[in-house]
Amino acid sequence: MNAALRVAVLGASGYAGLELLRIVLRHPRLELAVATSEQRAGTPVGEAFPSLRGLVSIPFEALVPERLPGRVDVALCCLHHGTAAPAVTALRDAGVAVVDLSADFRLRDLAAYERWYGPHKEPRLFGRAVFGVPELHRGAMRGAGLVAAAGCYPTSALLPLVPFLRAGLVAPGPVIVDAKSGVSGAGRKLEDRYLFAELDGNVQAYGVANHRHVAEIEQEAALAAGRAVGVTFVPQLLPVIRGIATSVYFQPSAPLSTADARAVLAEAWRDEPFVRVLPAGEAPSLAAVRGSNFCDLAAFADARHGTVVALATLDNLVKGAAGQMIQCLNAMQGWPETLGLLEAPLAP
User: Fold this and answer.
1) Tell me: the pLDDT tens digits for 188-202?
2) How deeply is 191 buried, as exposed, middle or buried, from its count of CB atoms within 10 A (0-12, 13-18, 19+)?
3) How far is CA 317 from CA 25, 26, 78, 184, 242, in A?
4) Which of 3.30.70.2190, 3.40.1390.10, 3.40.50.720, 3.20.20.150 is the CATH number of 5-128?
5) What average pLDDT score do residues 217-225 get?
6) Nearest to 60 by CA among 78, 47, 41, 46
7) Cα–Cα distance between 109 and 107 in angstroms, integer?
8) Separation in Å, CA 251 to CA 85, 230, 306
9) DSSP 8-state code for residue 201
10) Is 328 considered catalytic here?
């Protein structure tokens, strides 16, 4: 058997980073070699996070990209946009493969990136990453040195929408995406709206029709459709820790029944291990995907108005973050994409 691939998790003390540690520990072909955290450098991982006590023997260390080549074969980067780009570039220059969860390399249009995020810190690598949804781009991932793992919102919007776009079944005009996320999607930070007393029993939209992830959704939707696709995107915070529930609304280019719409999804994703098209009449739920790498889908037609409603749920920390990164890494290595990821959802 080949030696295990040595892995560095950058930003390992964040929510996505901690989920990565859990997955790497159970992955049969990965070895955790480095875990970085600026705030917790020098602290043993199991001391900082008791859930990992006895499972991880290394301490957190500060990120110095120049010290990683020779110690690791691949870096899983969970740093914020802007911060990620210099680290990713240094690692790629040293020949280390990278799966990056930030937005720094997801987009193909530099002007679009700068509109939403500001000047890019490493433009020479811009546009050279594979967009990280394996169900859409796995062919380009094998042997790639840099994959930009897609975020939770775009993944939950694209998996229910792309089959209809590829089939030419979406009429010109805006596609509406309404997505509701658990609070862990915002990361570990102190802001009033993320406090328990503010969030519990509350639901609130933010970034209405002005959220930066719309750029990724429109980019990949246009690739699927072969034309520009305008998206109105409304994200909302739910008073739960994990999960995203997304509703996608569009007018079809030809009449579709609910059975027709479900058949489009079922045919498109029939061979995908992590995309589950639900039985007729069943709608996705957060509880059915929590803690897993699954994305559950359904579609319904509104016979009165001709509208199609495509639904998706996923765990924002797994299929929307850490699980997606490992699935991408498996595809890069030519391994079965299910390695380390076939965990049953948490129930209850």
Assistant:
1) 776 777 888 888 999
2) exposed
3) 16, 16, 11, 8, 7
4) 3.40.50.720
5) 98
6) 41
7) 6
8) 38, 13, 7
9) T
10) no
24 touches 330 (CB < 8 A): no
- In CATH, which of 3.40.1190.20, 3.30.360.10, 3.30.70.100, 2.60.40.1120 is domain 153-316? 3.30.360.10
Q: What is the DSSP letter of 194?
A: G
**Residue 53 to residue 113: CA distance in whole angstroms:** 40
Residue 187 has pLDDT above 90, yes or no: no
Amino acid identity of residue 197, one-letter, is A
Residues 6+ apart with CB under 8 A from 299: 160, 258, 261, 262, 264, 265, 308, 309, 310, 311
Using a 10 angstrom Cβ sphere, with 0-12 exposed, 13-18 middle and 19 or more buried, the burial of residue 299 is: buried
Catalytic: which of 78, 152, 295, 328?
Answer: 152
Give the pLDDT band of residue 1 (cuts 50, 70, 90). Answer: low
Is 2's pLDDT higher than 60?
yes
